Amino acid sequence: MLDVRRLRLLRELAHLGTIAAVADALAFSPSAVSQQLSVLEREAGVPLLERTGRRVALTPAGRNLVRHTEAVLELLERADAELAHARSGLAGPLRIGAYPSAVRALVPAALAELASRHPELEAMVSEVDPAGVAAALRAGELDLALVHEYDLVPGEPEEGITLTGPVFAEPMYLAARTAGALADHRHSPWISAPPGTLCHELTRRACQAAGFSPRIRHRVDDFAAQLALVAAGQGVALVPHLGTGHCPPNVALTRLPIHRRTRTAFRAGAAAHPAVAAFAAALYAAVPAELRAA
Q1: Which pLDDT score is estimated for 293?
Q2: Domain boundary residue among 60, 83, 106?
Q3: If you write DSSP's letter for every residue of 100-162 in order, what string do you get?
Q4: Structure confidence by residue, pLDDT tens digits, 133-146
Protein backbone atom coordinates (compact mmCIF):
# COMPACT_ATOMS: atom_id res chain seq x y z
CA MET A 1 0.00 0.00 0.00
CA LEU A 2 1.38 3.39 -0.98
CA ASP A 3 1.84 5.85 1.88
CA VAL A 4 -0.14 9.09 1.46
CA ARG A 5 2.53 11.14 3.25
CA ARG A 6 5.18 9.98 0.80
CA LEU A 7 2.82 10.60 -2.11
CA ARG A 8 2.45 14.16 -0.87
CA LEU A 9 6.22 14.60 -1.03
CA LEU A 10 6.24 13.40 -4.63
CA ARG A 11 3.40 15.79 -5.47
CA GLU A 12 5.31 18.69 -3.95
CA LEU A 13 8.42 17.74 -5.92
CA ALA A 14 6.36 17.89 -9.10
CA HIS A 15 5.20 21.41 -8.19
CA LEU A 16 8.34 22.88 -6.64
CA GLY A 17 10.99 21.25 -8.79
CA THR A 18 13.75 20.50 -6.25
CA ILE A 19 14.15 18.37 -3.16
CA ALA A 20 15.51 21.40 -1.29
CA ALA A 21 12.33 23.37 -2.06
CA VAL A 22 10.14 20.47 -0.90
CA ALA A 23 12.14 20.19 2.32
CA ASP A 24 11.79 23.92 2.96
CA ALA A 25 8.03 23.94 2.23
CA LEU A 26 7.23 20.95 4.44
CA ALA A 27 9.78 21.51 7.24
CA PHE A 28 11.87 18.41 6.47
CA SER A 29 15.59 18.06 5.91
CA PRO A 30 16.57 17.42 2.28
CA SER A 31 18.04 14.05 3.28
CA ALA A 32 14.74 13.04 4.91
CA VAL A 33 12.83 13.97 1.75
CA SER A 34 15.25 11.96 -0.41
CA GLN A 35 14.99 8.98 1.93
CA GLN A 36 11.19 8.99 1.91
CA LEU A 37 11.06 9.30 -1.88
CA SER A 38 13.42 6.33 -2.16
CA VAL A 39 11.09 4.31 0.06
CA LEU A 40 8.16 5.36 -2.15
CA GLU A 41 10.02 4.11 -5.23
CA ARG A 42 10.54 0.74 -3.57
CA GLU A 43 6.85 0.60 -2.66
CA ALA A 44 5.88 1.48 -6.22
CA GLY A 45 8.25 -1.05 -7.74
CA VAL A 46 9.16 1.23 -10.66
CA PRO A 47 11.48 4.25 -11.00
CA LEU A 48 9.66 7.47 -10.13
CA LEU A 49 12.63 9.86 -10.36
CA GLU A 50 15.46 10.45 -12.79
CA ARG A 51 18.61 11.83 -11.19
CA THR A 52 21.11 13.74 -13.32
CA GLY A 53 23.85 15.18 -11.14
CA ARG A 54 22.08 17.35 -8.58
CA ARG A 55 18.86 17.61 -10.56
CA VAL A 56 15.83 15.35 -10.12
CA ALA A 57 12.97 14.93 -12.60
CA LEU A 58 9.89 12.75 -12.48
CA THR A 59 9.66 9.77 -14.81
CA PRO A 60 6.42 9.17 -16.77
CA ALA A 61 5.39 6.72 -14.03
CA GLY A 62 6.15 9.39 -11.42
CA ARG A 63 4.06 12.01 -13.23
CA ASN A 64 1.19 9.56 -13.56
CA LEU A 65 1.37 8.76 -9.84
CA VAL A 66 1.22 12.49 -9.04
CA ARG A 67 -1.99 12.73 -11.09
CA HIS A 68 -3.54 9.96 -8.98
CA THR A 69 -2.18 11.60 -5.82
CA GLU A 70 -4.06 14.82 -6.62
CA ALA A 71 -7.28 12.81 -6.89
CA VAL A 72 -6.59 10.97 -3.61
CA LEU A 73 -5.87 14.19 -1.71
CA GLU A 74 -9.02 15.80 -3.09
CA LEU A 75 -11.08 12.84 -1.85
CA LEU A 76 -9.50 13.16 1.59
CA GLU A 77 -10.44 16.86 1.69
CA ARG A 78 -14.02 15.94 0.80
CA ALA A 79 -14.07 13.31 3.54
CA ASP A 80 -12.81 15.87 6.06
CA ALA A 81 -15.55 18.28 4.96
CA GLU A 82 -18.22 15.62 5.47
CA LEU A 83 -16.91 14.81 8.94
CA ALA A 84 -16.95 18.52 9.83
CA HIS A 85 -20.63 18.68 8.86
CA ALA A 86 -21.33 15.75 11.19
CA ARG A 87 -19.88 17.55 14.20
CA SER A 88 -22.00 19.91 16.29
CA GLY A 89 -20.82 23.45 15.72
CA LEU A 90 -17.62 24.83 14.24
CA ALA A 91 -14.54 24.89 16.45
CA GLY A 92 -10.77 24.87 16.24
CA PRO A 93 -8.28 26.77 14.11
CA LEU A 94 -9.03 28.19 10.65
CA ARG A 95 -5.85 29.45 8.98
CA ILE A 96 -6.56 32.28 6.56
CA GLY A 97 -4.13 33.91 4.16
CA ALA A 98 -4.75 37.36 2.70
CA TYR A 99 -2.88 40.10 0.90
CA PRO A 100 -2.09 43.25 2.94
CA SER A 101 -4.75 45.69 1.66
CA ALA A 102 -7.50 43.09 2.26
CA VAL A 103 -6.13 42.41 5.76
CA ARG A 104 -6.43 46.09 6.54
CA ALA A 105 -9.70 46.99 4.80
CA LEU A 106 -11.91 43.88 4.89
CA VAL A 107 -10.62 41.04 7.04
CA PRO A 108 -11.27 42.64 10.47
CA ALA A 109 -14.98 43.10 9.67
CA ALA A 110 -15.15 39.57 8.23
CA LEU A 111 -13.56 38.11 11.36
CA ALA A 112 -15.97 40.00 13.60
CA GLU A 113 -18.91 38.60 11.62
CA LEU A 114 -17.40 35.11 11.75
CA ALA A 115 -16.85 35.31 15.52
CA SER A 116 -20.43 36.42 16.13
CA ARG A 117 -21.77 33.37 14.29
CA HIS A 118 -19.14 30.79 15.28
CA PRO A 119 -17.45 31.85 18.55
CA GLU A 120 -15.57 28.56 18.92
CA LEU A 121 -13.88 28.89 15.54
CA GLU A 122 -10.36 30.27 15.98
CA ALA A 123 -9.51 32.31 12.90
CA MET A 124 -5.78 32.86 12.37
CA VAL A 125 -4.74 35.36 9.68
CA SER A 126 -1.40 35.56 7.89
CA GLU A 127 -0.35 38.09 5.28
CA VAL A 128 0.74 36.30 2.12
CA ASP A 129 1.34 37.39 -1.45
CA PRO A 130 -0.96 35.62 -3.92
CA ALA A 131 2.12 34.11 -5.58
CA GLY A 132 2.80 32.09 -2.43
CA VAL A 133 -0.74 30.94 -1.70
CA ALA A 134 -0.79 27.65 -3.65
CA ALA A 135 2.35 26.33 -1.96
CA ALA A 136 1.06 27.36 1.49
CA LEU A 137 -2.28 25.64 0.90
CA ARG A 138 -0.67 22.43 -0.35
CA ALA A 139 1.72 22.41 2.62
CA GLY A 140 -1.19 22.76 5.05
CA GLU A 141 0.01 26.13 6.34
CA LEU A 142 -3.30 27.71 5.25
CA ASP A 143 -6.86 26.41 4.98
CA LEU A 144 -8.02 29.11 2.60
CA ALA A 145 -6.77 32.40 1.25
CA LEU A 146 -7.76 35.54 -0.58
CA VAL A 147 -5.96 35.97 -3.88
CA HIS A 148 -6.22 38.68 -6.49
CA GLU A 149 -5.66 39.03 -10.19
CA TYR A 150 -5.86 41.91 -12.65
CA ASP A 151 -7.54 42.33 -16.01
CA LEU A 152 -4.10 42.49 -17.61
CA VAL A 153 -2.56 39.83 -15.34
CA PRO A 154 -4.97 36.90 -14.98
CA GLY A 155 -4.28 34.24 -12.38
CA GLU A 156 -2.73 30.94 -13.40
CA PRO A 157 -4.58 27.70 -12.45
CA GLU A 158 -2.74 25.51 -9.94
CA GLU A 159 -3.16 21.74 -9.73
CA GLY A 160 -4.82 20.76 -6.47
CA ILE A 161 -6.12 24.28 -5.76
CA THR A 162 -9.69 25.48 -6.29
CA LEU A 163 -10.57 29.13 -6.92
CA THR A 164 -14.04 30.58 -6.48
CA GLY A 165 -15.51 33.09 -8.86
CA PRO A 166 -14.66 36.72 -8.06
CA VAL A 167 -15.97 37.83 -4.67
CA PHE A 168 -15.46 41.49 -5.48
CA ALA A 169 -13.80 43.70 -8.06
CA GLU A 170 -12.02 47.00 -7.45
CA PRO A 171 -11.21 49.74 -9.93
CA MET A 172 -7.56 50.70 -10.34
CA TYR A 173 -6.33 54.29 -10.14
CA LEU A 174 -3.37 56.21 -11.44
CA ALA A 175 -1.96 58.10 -8.47
CA ALA A 176 -0.07 61.28 -9.42
CA ARG A 177 0.32 64.88 -8.28
CA THR A 178 -2.08 65.96 -11.05
CA ALA A 179 -4.84 64.07 -12.86
CA GLY A 180 -3.98 62.58 -16.22
CA ALA A 181 -3.69 59.50 -18.40
CA LEU A 182 -1.07 56.76 -18.29
CA ALA A 183 0.50 58.01 -21.51
CA ASP A 184 1.14 61.39 -19.87
CA HIS A 185 3.69 59.69 -17.60
CA ARG A 186 5.90 57.90 -20.09
CA HIS A 187 8.85 60.00 -18.84
CA SER A 188 7.86 60.03 -15.15
CA PRO A 189 9.55 57.89 -12.50
CA TRP A 190 7.31 55.07 -11.31
CA ILE A 191 6.65 53.49 -7.92
CA SER A 192 5.76 49.80 -7.98
CA ALA A 193 5.77 46.61 -5.96
CA PRO A 194 8.94 44.46 -6.19
CA PRO A 195 9.53 42.22 -9.22
CA GLY A 196 7.88 38.82 -9.00
CA THR A 197 4.56 40.22 -7.71
CA LEU A 198 1.33 40.57 -9.68
CA CYS A 199 1.25 44.29 -8.84
CA HIS A 200 4.66 44.83 -10.43
CA GLU A 201 3.58 42.91 -13.53
CA LEU A 202 0.41 44.99 -13.79
CA THR A 203 2.41 48.22 -13.80
CA ARG A 204 4.66 46.86 -16.52
CA ARG A 205 1.83 45.60 -18.73
CA ALA A 206 -0.43 48.63 -18.25
CA CYS A 207 2.36 50.98 -19.29
CA GLN A 208 3.25 48.79 -22.26
CA ALA A 209 -0.39 48.89 -23.36
CA ALA A 210 -0.11 52.70 -23.23
CA GLY A 211 2.95 52.57 -25.50
CA PHE A 212 5.95 52.78 -23.18
CA SER A 213 7.99 50.87 -20.61
CA PRO A 214 7.91 52.32 -17.08
CA ARG A 215 11.08 53.65 -15.50
CA ILE A 216 10.64 52.23 -11.99
CA ARG A 217 12.50 54.21 -9.36
CA HIS A 218 11.00 52.88 -6.12
CA ARG A 219 10.01 49.29 -5.33
CA VAL A 220 7.63 49.34 -2.37
CA ASP A 221 5.05 46.66 -1.56
CA ASP A 222 2.67 48.86 0.41
CA PHE A 223 0.07 51.10 -1.19
CA ALA A 224 0.02 53.65 1.65
CA ALA A 225 3.79 54.04 1.28
CA GLN A 226 3.42 54.33 -2.50
CA LEU A 227 0.88 57.13 -2.07
CA ALA A 228 3.18 58.90 0.41
CA LEU A 229 5.99 58.75 -2.15
CA VAL A 230 3.67 60.12 -4.84
CA ALA A 231 2.73 62.96 -2.48
CA ALA A 232 6.44 63.71 -2.00
CA GLY A 233 6.91 64.07 -5.76
CA GLN A 234 8.84 60.83 -6.11
CA GLY A 235 6.84 59.39 -8.99
CA VAL A 236 3.46 57.94 -9.97
CA ALA A 237 1.83 54.59 -9.14
CA LEU A 238 -1.10 52.29 -9.86
CA VAL A 239 -3.24 51.73 -6.77
CA PRO A 240 -6.41 49.63 -6.26
CA HIS A 241 -9.50 50.94 -4.51
CA LEU A 242 -8.70 49.18 -1.21
CA GLY A 243 -5.30 50.87 -1.19
CA THR A 244 -6.65 54.42 -1.41
CA GLY A 245 -8.11 54.71 2.10
CA HIS A 246 -5.50 57.17 3.36
CA CYS A 247 -4.72 59.08 0.19
CA PRO A 248 -2.80 62.33 0.85
CA PRO A 249 -4.72 65.48 -0.17
CA ASN A 250 -2.14 66.49 -2.78
CA VAL A 251 -2.45 63.21 -4.71
CA ALA A 252 -4.91 62.97 -7.60
CA LEU A 253 -6.52 59.60 -8.35
CA THR A 254 -7.53 58.98 -11.95
CA ARG A 255 -9.76 55.96 -12.43
CA LEU A 256 -8.54 53.51 -15.08
CA PRO A 257 -10.47 50.90 -17.11
CA ILE A 258 -8.64 48.15 -15.18
CA HIS A 259 -9.90 46.10 -12.25
CA ARG A 260 -8.37 43.97 -9.53
CA ARG A 261 -10.54 40.93 -8.78
CA THR A 262 -10.40 38.95 -5.54
CA ARG A 263 -11.18 35.23 -5.26
CA THR A 264 -10.95 32.73 -2.44
CA ALA A 265 -8.59 29.77 -2.84
CA PHE A 266 -8.53 26.46 -1.00
CA ARG A 267 -7.41 22.89 -1.49
CA ALA A 268 -9.41 20.93 -4.06
CA GLY A 269 -12.20 19.09 -2.30
CA ALA A 270 -12.53 21.62 0.55
CA ALA A 271 -15.30 23.73 -1.01
CA ALA A 272 -17.96 22.02 1.09
CA HIS A 273 -16.11 22.37 4.38
CA PRO A 274 -18.40 24.37 6.71
CA ALA A 275 -15.58 26.51 8.11
CA VAL A 276 -14.49 27.51 4.59
CA ALA A 277 -18.10 28.31 3.68
CA ALA A 278 -18.59 30.28 6.91
CA PHE A 279 -15.60 32.52 6.24
CA ALA A 280 -16.66 33.03 2.62
CA ALA A 281 -20.08 34.23 3.82
CA ALA A 282 -18.54 36.53 6.42
CA LEU A 283 -16.16 37.99 3.83
CA TYR A 284 -19.00 38.67 1.38
CA ALA A 285 -20.92 40.48 4.12
CA ALA A 286 -17.87 42.70 4.78
CA VAL A 287 -17.45 43.76 1.14
CA PRO A 288 -19.02 47.14 0.29
CA ALA A 289 -22.05 46.64 -1.95
CA GLU A 290 -20.56 48.69 -4.79
CA LEU A 291 -17.58 46.31 -5.05
CA ARG A 292 -19.41 43.00 -4.85
CA ALA A 293 -19.14 40.82 -7.92
CA ALA A 294 -22.42 40.08 -9.64
Answers
A1: 66
A2: 83
A3: HHHHHHTHHHHHHHHHHH-TTEEEEEEE--GGGHHHHHHTTS-SEEEEEEETTBPPPP-TTEE
A4: 999 999 899 999 99
What does the pLDDT read at residue 211?
96
Q: Same domain for 75 and 12? A: yes
Q: What is the DSSP letter of 197?
A: S
Element housing 259 (H / E):
strand 252-267
SS3 per-residue string spanning 24-56? HHHCCCHHHHHHHHHHHHHHHCCCCEEEECCEE
- CA of 287: how far to CAs of 107, 167, 225, in Å? 9, 8, 24
Which CATH number goes with the domain that contains 40? 1.10.10.10
Mean pLDDT over each residue of the chain, to the nearest integer:
92
Q: How far apart are CA 20 and CA 190, in angstroms?
A: 36
Q: How many domains does the chain have?
A: 3
Say which amino acid occupies 279.
F
To the nearest 10 degrees (0 to 180), the angle between helices 30-44 and 19-26 is 110
Its domain, for residue 204, covers 170-259
pLDDT in tens, 180-231: 999 999 999 999 999 988 899 999 999 999 999 999 999 998 999 999 999 9
Find the CATH number of the domain harbouring 118: 3.40.190.10
Torsions phi, psi of 194, nearest 5?
-65, 155
